[in-house]
Amino acid sequence: RVKMSDEDILVCAVKFGDNFCLYFEGLECDAFSKEKTLQRFLRNVNSQLLVVRPDLNVAAFEDVTDQEMRSGNGMHFNIHYYKTTTPSAGMPVAFSVQIADKSYYMCGEKECGKMIVRFREGEVPKEIPDTSNAIFFKKTFTSCSSRAFKFEHSLERGMFLAFEEEGSLRKLILKKLSREDEVDETMKI
């Protein structure tokens, strides 16, 4: 950075190559690289835990007993934090969960014109070159709830993880926020 009057101006190092092409040094390309992983339970506003059941192709918030919680099968989420060159969108994260001897990662996919949450068998990548349907941007739910978050899908801006009542289930979905300043309790995780 160079200070000229009251304005900061970003200056990049450059060099000429053998073919007289101009090269910029020290610039990073847009990419995500895994920084750290934390293991957590994901709870909704009703203190229910998110449980993944890939055999039924469903993820839902459920009341869980202490014994079920200790087993953690389908409930202990790995939250993979990524470094990014564009931090303004929020902290990029991906979710995975271990069920029996298999690992599943969460992604948002378009099906029949509607965005849905899916759990795919496999590991989240260490490096994501550009974009991924497995990346969500972690944002503070509200300025006064520092321990609650909402997660915006990286490819479908304005779509957040939420829950929706479906019969007796509180199913995990992707839901469109109608206004940026709207507070929707179904998105509070």
TrEMBL record:
Belongs to the IL-1 family. CDD domains: beta-trefoil_IL18. It comes from Eurystomus gularis. One of its GO terms (cellular component) is extracellular space. It is found in: Secreted. The gene is Il18. One of its GO terms (biological process) is regulation of gene expression. This is Interleukin-18. The keyword Manganese does not apply.
